[in-house]
C-alpha cells in the first residue's frame, strides 16, 4: 500500500471517531443510548439495518465461494436475506417498534420476562450473548486477514486497531453513533464497490462484461446451485435468515425499534430488503469475475485482495480497505450496542441488586463500561483463535446453526397466533434445537451443511409448536403485550423507560 492509501484509511478512522463524538450530544440516558427513543428516520434505519447485516467476511469467505463456484454465492446468501427481510417487514418490524413505543422497551429481550417468565429470558440472553462473542471474534479475524493481505500487518494489530476504534465511538455515542457511522460507511462502501466493478469491466470487455463473461468462466460458475451450495442449503438459509435478520440477530431488531413508528419501521425493512437484493450484485460481480483476471489462486480467500492489488491505483486500494473496515465496524458496533442493552437491562439487574437502583446517569455510565468490556472480550477471543477455517466454521456451523433455537421463542412470541405458547414451549424449543446442533456438530462426522444449519431450527420450530399446542397457557400480562402490538399508538409520545401502566414490570426492577 502507498502513502496515499494509508492516508485514506487514516482519514476514514478519524471521521468515524468524529461522528461518534458528535453523537454524544444526542445521548442523555439509556433510552437514547439503546433505541434513540424512536427518533431515527425510517430511511436511515433501513440503511443501518442493511449495513449492520454483513462484514468483511463477505470479502474473505464469501469471496472464496464466488471465486471457486461463481454466481451461486448470491442465491445462497444475499438473496435469502433480502427475501427474508421482505417477509419480516410485515410480520416483525412494526411489532418490534411498538414494544418501544407502547412499553418503553430498550432491549429486544426485555419483554420476554413478562411474555414468558424470567428464567426463559435469562436462558436466551446468556446463550445469545455467548454466541455473539464468538460471532464478533470472527469479524475481527476477517478484517485482520484482509489488512494482513494488503499491508502485511500482523493479525493482532489488525484486530486491535479496528476493535479499539469501534469501542471508542460506540461507548460515547451509542445507537446514534452506530447509525450515523453506518450511513457514512454506506457511502464509502458504495464508492469502493463501484470503483472495483468499473475496474473489472475496464480490464475485461467493458460494460458488456456483465453478460459476456459467463462463457469464459469455469463450467458451472453461472449456475444458481454449484459446489457445496445445494438447493436444500439455500432453503435452509432462507428459513434461518428470515428469523435471524428480522430480530433473531438482536441488533437488527434495534433498528426497527429506533424508527419513529411501526409503519415506518416496515418501510425501513422494505428498504433494507431492496438493498439486499440489489447492492450485493455490484459487490459480487468482481468476485465472480476474478478467475479471469487473477487465475490459479489456491486459497480463494485471497482472491479479492489479489484482484484489488492487480486493478486499483494508489488511493483506491485505501478506499477499498476503508470499505472493508466499514462493513466490519458497522456490524460489530451494532452487535456491541445491543449486547450492552441486554446486559444492562436484562442480565445485570438480576445478578447485582445495586444495578436496579441506578439513576439515569449511573445507567448510562454502566452501559458505556459494558460496551468497552464486551468489545475487549471479543477481541481477546479473536486474538487467541486460529484464523485457518475459523471464519467459515463460526459463520455457518455455529452462528447460522444456533441462531434458530435462540430466535424462535423470541420472534414467535411477538405474534398473536402463538399467544398460548408459554415458557415450557420456549425452553423446550431452545433446548431441543441446541441439543440437535451439538449432536450434529460434535457427534456426526459427515453431517452436511444443510443438516447442520436447518435441523436445529426445524427442531426448535417443531417443539415450540407442539408443546404450545398440547400444553397451552394463558397469562394476562403476556397476552396483553402481544395484543398491544397490532397497531401503532394513537399518540406518538414515546416513553423513555418502561411504564407500569403499559408494561407489567419485572419483580426485580
Automatic annotation (TrEMBL):
<dbReference type="Pfam" id="PF00474">
    <property type="entry name" value="SSF"/>
</dbReference>
<keyword id="KW-1003">Cell membrane</keyword>
<comment type="similarity">
    <text>Belongs to the sodium:solute symporter (SSF) (TC 2.A.21) family.</text>
</comment>
<keyword id="KW-1133">Transmembrane helix</keyword>
<feature type="transmembrane region" description="Helical">
    <location>
        <begin position="274"/>
        <end position="297"/>
    </location>
</feature>
<feature type="transmembrane region" description="Helical">
    <location>
        <begin position="390"/>
        <end position="412"/>
    </location>
</feature>
<feature type="transmembrane region" description="Helical">
    <location>
        <begin position="6"/>
        <end position="23"/>
    </location>
</feature>
<feature type="transmembrane region" description="Helical">
    <location>
        <begin position="317"/>
        <end position="344"/>
    </location>
</feature>
<dbReference type="InterPro" id="IPR001734">
    <property type="entry name" value="Na/solute_symporter"/>
</dbReference>
<feature type="transmembrane region" description="Helical">
    <location>
        <begin position="233"/>
        <end position="253"/>
    </location>
</feature>
<feature type="transmembrane region" description="Helical">
    <location>
        <begin position="153"/>
        <end position="175"/>
    </location>
</feature>
<feature type="transmembrane region" description="Helical">
    <location>
        <begin position="43"/>
        <end position="67"/>
    </location>
</feature>
<feature type="transmembrane region" description="Helical">
    <location>
        <begin position="365"/>
        <end position="384"/>
    </location>
</feature>
<feature type="transmembrane region" description="Helical">
    <location>
        <begin position="73"/>
        <end position="93"/>
    </location>
</feature>
<feature type="transmembrane region" description="Helical">
    <location>
        <begin position="123"/>
        <end position="147"/>
    </location>
</feature>
<keyword id="KW-0915">Sodium</keyword>
<keyword id="KW-0739">Sodium transport</keyword>
<dbReference type="InterPro" id="IPR050277">
    <property type="entry name" value="Sodium:Solute_Symporter"/>
</dbReference>
<keyword id="KW-0769">Symport</keyword>
<dbReference type="InterPro" id="IPR038377">
    <property type="entry name" value="Na/Glc_symporter_sf"/>
</dbReference>
<feature type="transmembrane region" description="Helical">
    <location>
        <begin position="187"/>
        <end position="213"/>
    </location>
</feature>
<protein>
    <submittedName>
        <fullName>Na+:solute symporter</fullName>
    </submittedName>
</protein>
<keyword id="KW-0472">Membrane</keyword>
<keyword id="KW-0406">Ion transport</keyword>
<keyword id="KW-0812">Transmembrane</keyword>
<feature type="transmembrane region" description="Helical">
    <location>
        <begin position="424"/>
        <end position="444"/>
    </location>
</feature>
<keyword id="KW-0813">Transport</keyword>
<feature type="region of interest" description="Disordered">
    <location>
        <begin position="488"/>
        <end position="509"/>
    </location>
</feature>
<feature type="transmembrane region" description="Helical">
    <location>
        <begin position="450"/>
        <end position="470"/>
    </location>
</feature>
<feature type="compositionally biased region" description="Low complexity">
    <location>
        <begin position="491"/>
        <end position="509"/>
    </location>
</feature>
